[in-house]
Every structure is written in C-alpha cells, then in structure tokens.
Amino acid sequence: MSLTTEVVDDPTHLARRAAEFVAARARARVAESGRFTFAVSGGKTPWAMFAELANEEVPWDDVVIYQVDERIAPDGDPDRNLTHLLAALPEGVRVYAMPVTADDPIASAGSYAADLPSQLDLVHLGLGPDGHTASLVPGDPVLEVTDAAVGVTLPYMGHRRMTLTFPAIDAAREVVWLISGADKVDALQRLVQHDVSIPAARVATAEQVLFVDEAARGT
C-alpha cells in the first residue's frame, strides 16, 4: 500500500490543493477511459473543495459522483450530506444519491451497491477525532462486513447511516484523504502508523494520498 502525505497551511489551502488534485485525476481518467467515477464523503472540507473546483478545468459531462455515506433522514434535511453536496456541485453533474428514504434501508443498500462500478476511480475520505471514516465508526458491526459493498450502521450521533464498506473502498483505484483541524492530531498519527484499532487505519486501498493541514499535523 502506498500512502503519500502532503501538508498545507490551513483549510483554505487544503480545499484548493485537493481541488487541483481531483481535477487532474478527472482529466486523466476521462482521457483514458471516457469517464471518472468519484465517491464523496460529507463535511465542510469537501464542500469547500467543490467550491474550489469551480476554478479548475473539470470534464463534468464525463464525471459521475457517488456518495460514500449518508444519514438516514428525509430529503432536504440539513443533516443529509446530499443536501450540501448538491448545493456545492455545478448544475447538471450526475449524482447517484444513496436511497436512504426507502422503507427498507438494508434492501436499499443492496440496490445502491448494485449500481456502483466494480472499481471506483477515486474515493474521498475524511477522518473523525474518534478514528472513524465514512460511516465506519468504532464498534459498529458494519466494520466486519466483507460480502457487501454498502452497509447500514447502528445509530451514531443521532442517525443510522448508509455507508460504503471496506471492500468497496479497498477496491478503488485511489483514496484521497482530506484532514483538517487540531482535533484530528491523535487520529491522524494513528492512521499513518497503520494502527488498526481505529477504523480509518483499516482502509487498504493500494494508492492513498493524504492532504493534511498544519493544525491536524500538530504543528
């Protein structure tokens, strides 16, 4: 596994540098295969990255966005990642939303998994202070799923969630981590040390790039 770390000054520079990275990957993959598939987690940092992508050359007509995870909540709910994702993206970009409003979330997770490509080109991940990533949280049974690409969690911070599992993330061509803030110092150290006692360190995608700001690095 290749794990490359790039440190930037602050969240503004983090969003800008991540946008440059994603745009370059999108252009290269579209030139190679005609399509770029990108799975995105929630959070303020990726939304800032999408705002910066407006200043980049991105072949949006050939980009398909998937969700890494989503809270089980009504459409338009401010807690939904999708609400903020759609607001941040240019109009017309194809987004495959996780079907979290369906009556049977387990069956819906299976339907979403069936719509995923066998290998995503790029997966964006964040890092929680408790070491979680996506909605793969400490102690949840979804951590042990090996036979499905999408799972449903127990309640966490007020919501059950739908999430990509380790098999889906590990199969991706590449993972890009965006990690910002002083509350991430301990979790980041454990991630780069491959301390598998935290969920984030169990991600085994072959190619991983970390964009980290100075506060998260602890400097």
The gist of it:
The chain has seven helices and ten strands.
Q: Mean pLDDT across all residues, rounded?
A: 95
Distance from first to last alpha carbon: 26 Å
Strand neighbour order, sheet with most strands = 1-10-9-6-2-3-5
Helix content: 25-40%
CATH class: Alpha Beta
Count of alpha and pi helical runs: 7
Extended strand count? 10
The secondary-structure element order is EHEHEEHEHEEEHEHEH
Gross morphology: globular
**Class per helix and strand makeup:** alpha/beta
Supply the CATH architecture. 3-Layer(aba) Sandwich
Question: Total domains, how many?
Answer: 1
Which regions are unreliable across 5 or more consecutive residues at pLDDT < 50?
none
- Which topology does CATH recognise? Rossmann fold
Main sheet specs: 7 strands, parallel
CA-atom Rg in angstroms: 16 Å
Q: Could you tell me the strand content as a percent range?
A: 15-25%
Description:
This protein has seven helices and ten strands. The chain has helices at 11-33, 44-53, 81-88, 105-115, 166-170, 185-192, 214-217, and strands spanning 2-8, 36-40, 63-67, 69-71, 94-96, 122-125, 150-152, 161-164, 175-179, 207-213. Helix 1 (11-33) packs across helix 2. The longest helix has 23 residues, at 11-33. The two termini are 26 Å apart. The model has no long low-confidence stretch (mean pLDDT 95).
Keywords, separated by commas or semicolons:
219 residues; alpha/beta; Rossmann fold; seven-stranded parallel β-sheet; three-stranded antiparallel β-sheet; 7 helices; 32% helix
Fold blueprint:
Blueprint: E1 2-8, H1 11-33, E2 36-40, H2 44-53, E3 63-67, E4 69-71, H3 81-88, E5 94-96, H4 105-115, E6 122-125, E7 150-152, E8 161-164, H5 166-170, E9 175-179, H6 185-192, E10 207-213, H7 214-217
Parallel strand pairs: 1-10, 2-3, 2-6, 3-5, 6-9, 9-10
Antiparallel strand pairs: 4-8, 7-8
